Amino acid sequence: MRSPGAGAPHSKESRVNRRRRRTAFLAVAGLTAGLLLTAPQSASAANLIKNPGFETAGTGDMPYCWEKSGWGDNDFTFTTTADAHTGSKAMKVELTRRVEGDRKALITESAACAPVVTPGKQYDLGLWYKTTTPDAAITLFRHDTTSGWQYWTDLRTLDMAGSWTEATVRTPEVPAGTDRISWGVSVYGTGSATTDDYTMDQVPDPVLPPECTGTAEQCANGKWDVLPTQNPVRSMHSVVLHNGKVLLIAGSGNDESMFEAGTFTSAVYDPANGSYKVIPTPKDMFCAGHVQLQDGRVLVMSGNKGYPTADGRVGYQGYKDSYVFDPQTETYSKTNDMNDGHWYPSATILGNGDVISFGGLKEDSTGSVTAELFSEAEQQWQPLWKVNQTWSYWGLYPSMILMQDGRLFYSGSHVFGNNIPGTGSAIYDYDANTTTQVPGLRNKDERDQSASVLLPPAQDQKVLTLGGGNIDSNPEANRLTDIIDLKQPNPSYVAGPPIPQGTVDLGNGPVPQTGNQGKMYVSAVLLPDGKVLETGGALHNRANPVYETSIFDPASETFDPVAVDPEARGYHSSAFLLPDGRVMTTGDNPGNGTWNHDVSVYSPPYLFKGPRPQITSVIDTEWNYGDTQRITVDRPIAKAELIRPAAVTHSSDPNQRFVDLPLSVDGDNVDLNVTSNPNLAPPGWYMLFAVDANGVPSVAKWVHLQGPQALKATDASAHVHDFADAPEGKVVKPGKKRTSQKVSPTISGCDRHYGSVNVCVPTDFPAEVKKTTAARCTWLKTNEYGRLKVNGKDDPLNLDTNRDGIACGKGDPARR
């Protein structure tokens, strides 16, 4: 599953390659002895490139301000050729044999040669080229004032061309801390690329400031609306379909009476008219896993085979069944069974369209240690012997994010109780079948129902983890955020800014949060302007909703508090991006068993900044990796991106990602350059947004990105760069084969000795609640638990002191 690395940052290439015992070439050929034939040419006032046509010789076999770079097992030549577009010289890079790696001619990484850039600005790059290989790309490096030179991104794959052809592309905004860039063309397949006449110009700033079209409050903080029609089902799973509708899955909806009656529900919501259509649902998909397949259908895995017994001796059970939902027919069809039951499984789509799944509870309530693989080619779950196994228990809904080289990053976000042993986050390499611990995640055992998201753009390979708590020990949820840069050779989480505080309802209405009070059950949603909305949450296990919403800016790593969702959004809530750029939130299931059927929709500030750009045409909605796809727009745009539609539950959507599309602009015609790496954008349907210079997005168009058959390199690997290539954490190899992990039947944090199964009396009350019958009964009354029958003879929380079979009944609180 992991594609080989290529084109690592120069400063570490030889070190990394020595570690991997690769046949390597020194990354940079410095300026060595030789004659300087002519005086160095300075960049023109507009063109920021020095020696753009290779006409000035350097002190060696490379022209002035150009250097050799590359790595891997391949045979290559660098030639200053007379076959030029203009003038008398051009640069030819050729691979005659390739096992792995690439070769590239780049602008010299020096203060004298590398163009100066300004953070936040964009630059138009251009060159003329001829190629005999489909495996050539424009590659950028950037100089970070703190960390030095490092790989930035690939901007465009060059189409094969037998005659001189112009290629232009616009960079993303220059990241903070960057003062210079280096770029050129990399060749990563057999054949040659000859280039000449490079250009680089800064994109002019927008002429017009944003125009506020709402109230001052709306323009600054956005606006929430509670929709007039309620969600008809108790849905805790939300999937945005490629027709713009939303699949809302409830199953039994955490309601045991519905389970016993065999009443399982889903609904399809249509944002265009606000309608809901209830869909027949074959099994209890309550707390299943789900992911969108390459063709846009939704794979739903496992679910609830049985609720815990009344006395709590048996916990939740996951069934082996799996289904596919078809958005066109709005029906479910059965696949083959999984090898294990998996209640609360992960679900991550891979670059080849396969789906991998970990964790959850088996049919006997024990933890599953079985990795499951759904084959895109065969459209079925693979037998156990075909799937690499480490026999590791990853917990419930472990957040497994696909990295750019095909490995999986376990972020440390999970559901219920403590984290996995070790540091709490790790890199899982399926091909090597190893797990490497990653350090830095703070309070790893209080990240229960935190949220993790791959920050925009996916090319940057940074992950943000927010908030969390622990339903077993039930402390106050925290404000922690941690950020990891997986481009680093030995990545480690570093502390991010704390989540802003809002108000919390402790039972008598919202009051300001104090101290270090944060939230669990938090939702994080990628926005088309490249920022992240975080919203919802609660202070304790299924209690005390927190009212706070803010927008995180990955560029500045800061939060901006905005308008607050007026509805409680704790356990079993969801938040997700709609194709029109708004965010929809649903659900809330407190411990007393009630359900919030109200639906909220948030209009971010960018919807109040004047007219929206429009994508007036998309030439082709069927896209392949490495394509250049043309759209037309009604006015200038600054960027475009693909956003994978949501498939979210329990604060978890590991497949959510924002993939930058570098631009080539010709008036209203915009060519979009699609990544050649399917691990950055796994195959499937995506929302295509165009965004103007003020951050105002268009309404999305739907495009279908095709799978690995579009890859062109002879070894079927994309042009992939080495990130996280030298982690120093503890490496864990496969353990002994086993059947399962023992898991407590109270894993959900609910003591089943009291009330019905959909009522959650906490196994551990919040720390501020005194351990007395009176204090606990007061807390249950404040949180509207109502009459609670004692199930059986045991009373572990001492709530039935007069032993009349009713917890917190008449006379109970008076006794200690």
Automatic annotation (TrEMBL):
GO terms for biological process: carbohydrate metabolic process. It comes from the Bacteria. This is Galactose oxidase. Transmembrane segments: none annotated. Residues 1-45 form the signal peptide. Gene3D superfamilies: Galactose oxidase/kelch, beta-propeller, Galactose-binding domain-like, Immunoglobulins. Coiled coil: none annotated. Residues 612-704 form the Galactose oxidase-like Early set domain. It holds the Pfam family GO-like_E_set. Residues 265-592 form the Glyoxal oxidase N-terminal domain. Keywords: Signal.
